């Protein structure tokens, strides 16, 4: 299909005071498995921009895979491991989304 | 039009002769059948069996009459008994949606997907999931003919809720343009992916495909 780089974004809104705990858990317990599945962590962000423990925060983690072959390689298998991970952090999360993104046509990567 | 489908597999101990007898009995002209086909399941299926049977009946009642017929009771039912090492995933449905691009398809591929939506999923979620699937035929010309709908009768290892069938010119159409289309991995797959909050489809699916001499999805004219 000629698909180029695919971005995978986890947008996770966490309860007040839980940003640090979720961030640590994500990097320590989720990221190693994702990297084994061929995903590259491109960047991570947060909003609000300052740590305000009294308020919820939204964390963004952007991953990439080089093409749709690599997308399927990270997608297939290890369902139990993935389910266990997301279940383990349910109590920290208010809501979340996983978005798939591609570069706009003609935009240099 | 009512479509009955069975994906049939066998435990290692089931005699080759019994497998052949069942296959031949299903391939025979059964009461009430408009058209039918028996298709060998190709490698790389997920939870597929050894072969699949697909039959078109005028309506659900005709299918019921067929399974109550002497031929079925004598030649087929005993060989479908799970106690004898036979594993059957079966559905009956009326395709709510379908499309024909190539009624004269020759030497193609039929692909069967049986899925089971979670018991707690809502009809609104089903509608949204179905709408995403229905985008695919329009965007993937490799899908030559297709049918999709909600299951009316289900048996096997899951309470199957939907059937999604397509025909392709060859297996490359399935493994290439279909599998790798952005609508597939970027939109439709969210309903299946345990990492996506939208997921409502049980990860255990029957995904099977096999060679067909001509189209089996397009109803006779």
Task: Describe what this molecule looks like in 3D.
The complex is a heterodimer of chains A (about 110) and B (about 220). In chain A, strands 2-3-1-4 form a 4-stranded antiparallel beta sheet. Chain A has helices at about 20-35, 70-75, 80-90, and strands at about 5-15, 40-45, 55-65, 95-100. Chain A contains 3 helices and 4 strands. With about 110 residues, chain A is of the alpha+beta class. Chain B has about 220 residues and is α+β, with helices and mostly antiparallel strands. Helix content of chain B is about 25%, strand content about 30%. Chain B has helices at about 15-25, 60-65, 70-75, 125-140, 170-180, 180-185; strands spanning about 1-10, 35-40, 50-55, 85-95, 95-100, 105-115, 145-155, 160-170, 205-215. In chain B, strand 7 (about 145-155) and strand 8 form a beta hairpin. At the A-B interface, helix 2, helix 3 and strand 4 of A face helix 6 of B.
List keywords for this structure.
heterodimer, A: 109 residues, alpha+beta, 4-stranded antiparallel sheet, 3 helices, 4 strands, B: 221 residues, 6 helices, globular
Low-confidence segments of chain A, given as residue ranges, are none
Radius of gyration of chain A: 15 Å
Structural class by helix and strand composition of chain A: alpha+beta
Helix content of chain B: 25-40%
Count of helical regions of chain A? 3
Distance between the termini of chain B: 12 Å
DSSP strand (E) fraction of chain B? 25-35%
Strand content of chain A: 25-35%
> What's the main sheet of chain B like?
9 strands, antiparallel
Oligomeric state of the chains present here:
heterodimer
> What order do the strands of the largest sheet of chain A run in, or round the barrel if closed?
2-3-1-4
Low-confidence stretches of chain B: none
Using CB atoms under 8 Å apart, which protein chain pair has the greatest interface? A-B, 18 and 16 residues
> What form of chain A results from the Cα inertia axes?
globular
Q: How confident is the prediction overall: mean pLDDT of chain B?
A: 96
* SSE pattern of chain B: EHEEHHEEEHEEHHE
Order of helices and strands of chain A: EHEEHHE
